[in-house]
Amino acid sequence: MVLPASLLLDPANEVVENPIDARFRIASQMTQFMHKVSPSFVNQYRSLCQNRCRLRRLLCHAAIELDNIQADAEDLDGFFQTLVNEEPLPYPAGQAPTYAYPLSSWIYHYKLIQLQLVVHMGFELSVYATHEYPGMYWYLSHLTSLHLSHLERISYFVSSQSQSQAGKSRELQIKEVQHALSLLYRHFSRLKAIDTLASALHRL
Fold it and tell me: What DSSP assignment string belongs to the chain?
């Protein structure tokens, strides 16, 4: 979703054995990152086997864990910027150039999903008092607005990326980018519907 046809996910990096080579260092760091992240995502699927009350509590703890992982991912993104010679891009248009931060953006995306699910389940489990509903609808709208802005940022950098995997045809790389943009659009459409409904209920 954030790294279509990227050098960071090039399978050819795994066969490089020269420690000085940038591809070896990329593969090593990506492997360590996946080993750190994978338990959190596996635990999410385990949590789905719990009852709804316990699931909501576990999701709250998981969101805090993802927050810590996001901070580590930002450091790793900074490390990769020099290895792949990433060029910063002005975002929003006319603003100072900034980097894509793909790994931390990916983690932030899933953290926002979890936070929204926690709020949704609060309604389902009658956690909120009646007078708290407007405030929680506002908070849900706020989360979805943040998420929509984040997806727009990801879409901008995915559309603008110039790095590519060696050995892949230009047509295949374009296809992977288009697939990522299609996935982002589906997320965007779902969040827009949630934001519209939450905003309407908040104003009732």
Answer: ---TT-GGG-GGGGG---TTSHHHHHHHHHHHHHHHHHHHHHHHHHHTTS-HHHHHHHHHHHHHHHHHHHHHHHHHHHHHHHHTTPPPEESSTTS-EE---HHHHHHHHHHHHHHHHHHHHHHHTT-S-GGGHHHHHHHHHHHHHHHHHHHHHHHHHHHH-----TT--HHHHHHHHHHHHHHHHHHHHHHHHHHHHHHHHHT-
